[in-house]
Design a protein that fits this description.
Helices cover 32% and strands 23% of the residues. By secondary structure, the protein is of the alpha/beta class. The chain starts with a helix and ends in a 6-residue tail after the last helix.
Amino acid sequence: MTVVDSVWAKRIRGLWTGRLKFRPNPPGKNSVQPPFHPARAEEGFHPPPGAGCASERMLYSHDSTDSSGGTIIGDVIVARDLEKRFEDLIAVDRIAFRVREGEVFGFLGPNGAGKTTTMKMIQCVSPKTGGTLQVFDMDVDTHPREIKSRLGVVPQETNLDPDFSAYRNLLVYARYFGIPKREAEQRAEELLTFMQLEEKRDVPIDKLSGGMKRRLIIARALINAPELLILDEPTIGLDPQARHLIWETLRSLQAEGNTLVLTTHYLDEAERLCDRLVIMDHGKILVEGAPADLIREHAGSDVVEVEQTPEVIARLTGLGVNYDLAGDVLQVFTDRPHDVARELLEVCRHEAVTVRPATLEDVFLRLTGRRLRE
């Protein structure tokens, strides 16, 4: 066992827990889970030294247990008839949704759909016009300060302080939450290690790459040990390696019982990360559910694609098969892809017929259309 592994094992056994005040366990729980433990250590993630005591809230086991031993999963966010108006514009139109403890919940939609406005109401930075919105069983209108103290927010824009190093950015942000200096220093070191930024500890912000800046913003959002992490386009503008690193980070946070709410324009990201999601348009929720269920319901299992020709259209019409037009390509969403492809190959021997699995992007485009939104 390495020195790092030994330190981590001590943390897990609670030998160092006296250094911080830990939040009490809920009724029926007699153990806690260490935060920051990567869910996939075999893919290159290793527990950072000292990460086990980074926070009191991240050691909180979110699920409660009933008298029969069954697990009860509560709601972190509950919205009913939620509405937001800007003069004559209805940005959010009487929507209802719930976000459960420990899940990754996504808001998807074209530009102007209302998803960002909804996220701002959850963050208590934009007051609602109507309906009800509760976060941690508290009303956003009457308890904004208490709610904000338990949130971590990752904004879309990079708003790190350019005058400070990576480490100093975390320390200064910790002051907003009244975290004692020594504890803030400990958390900052542990978070830099967790986000694989320890070698960039004293580097100025303008010397960091785009991926490093996004990881530092996530570390900053975790400095107060939030129970709910809100992420607006967490991997925007990143290369594939940086995106996958952040995905693994978010999975490891969820594995420790944290609740994540995100919005993203990368549909493959939403499909990978989200337990449930909503697709919004024109201020309304069009559908809600698990990605796999939405794909199955609105797109089927597979998509057959073929170039648009009169012969192909005639054959599909004769078969009574519905299709969508995507530019000069016809798309058939079906659970019988090989039967459809066989029929099409008989009339378009010189054209390519492709079969691929249906995706969340197919569902998104079918529900919201292909017209560009500004």
